[in-house]
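Please go through the sequence line and token line underneath and see whether the fold suits the sequence. See right below:
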Amino acid sequence: MSDEQFEFLLAIDEYKRSNSRPFPTWTEVLDVIKALGYRKVAEPQPLDRLTSEDEQVKVPLETCLD
């Protein structure tokens, strides 16, 4: 797990504890991500989704939004 992933997990855990939300909505997750400093600065790109430890599949963003 990367440092960035660990930071994200800690932020989500803190949000869940402080708001008594065991399962935050996607909107709440986006709020946590923005609170970490992330901003959309580029055009959407295909997402990399891990299917196994050494195999990746490119998933177009539009597919995830359907």
